[in-house]
């Protein structure tokens, strides 16, 4: 490898937060919501201990040996994930979810959008949100699928 060759790497960091929500769409009747979301449509909501894995990608800096300083990534994740979401009622405490159903897919989109505002441009690679050990959403910033 020549000294000028760039090496790309992906760097991931995880956090865990607790939050409650109710799966309920304003576009559906109460009966339709209950049929679609079942027990997750409980009017009193329910909670999760979410695990979020954020992955950034970029060139390994030849001086620092890093894609990104982990201390910086930790601070960005604190601001974008922990502060707005931890120990919150997603539907009542997070304005984004006043009009968007608080599914894990939409939690991933919220986190992506929040991190995009903080991280250096183009470095965010993916956001994984683990709602449970069995249910995981991976979001890479895709907005739509052309049909």
From TrEMBL:
Belongs to the PTPS family. Involved in the biosynthesis of tetrahydrobiopterin, an essential cofactor of aromatic amino acid hydroxylases. Catalyzes the transformation of 7,8-dihydroneopterin triphosphate into 6-pyruvoyl tetrahydropterin. The gene is Pts. Its cofactor is Zn(2+). This is 6-pyruvoyl tetrahydrobiopterin synthase. PANTHER family: 6-PYRUVOYL TETRAHYDROBIOPTERIN SYNTHASE, PYRUVOYL TETRAHYDROBIOPTERIN SYNTHASE. Binds 1 zinc ion per subunit. It comes from Bombycilla garrulus. Keywords: Lyase, Metal-binding, Tetrahydrobiopterin biosynthesis, Zinc. Pathway: Cofactor biosynthesis; tetrahydrobiopterin biosynthesis; tetrahydrobiopterin from 7,8-dihydroneopterin triphosphate: step 1/3. GO terms for cellular component: mitochondrion. Zn(2+) binds at residues 21, 46, 48. One of its GO terms (molecular function) is metal ion binding. InterPro entries: 6-PTP_synth/QueD, 6-PTP_synth/QueD_sf, PTPS_Cys_AS, PTPS_His_AS. Its EC number is 4.2.3.12. The active site is at residues 40, 87, 131.
């Amino acid at each position: 490898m020549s000294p000028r060759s760039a090496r790309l790497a992906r760097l991931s960091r995880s956090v865990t937060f607790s939050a409650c929500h109710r799966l309920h769409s304003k576009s559906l009747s109460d009966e339709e919501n209950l049929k679609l979301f079942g027990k997750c449509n409980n009017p009193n909501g329910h909670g999760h201990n979410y695990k979020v894995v954020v992955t950034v990608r970029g060139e390994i800096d030849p001086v620092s040996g890093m894609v990104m300083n982990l201390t910086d990534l930790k601070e960005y994740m604190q601001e974008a994930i922990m502060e707005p979401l931890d120990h919150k009622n997603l539907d009542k405490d997070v304005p984004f979810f006043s009009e968007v159903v608080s599914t894990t897919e939409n939690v991933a989109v919220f986190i992506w959008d929040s991190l995009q505002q903080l991280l250096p441009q183009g470095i965010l690679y993916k956001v994984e949100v683990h709602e449970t050990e069995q249910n995981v959403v991976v979001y890479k910033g895709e907005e739509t699928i052309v049909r």
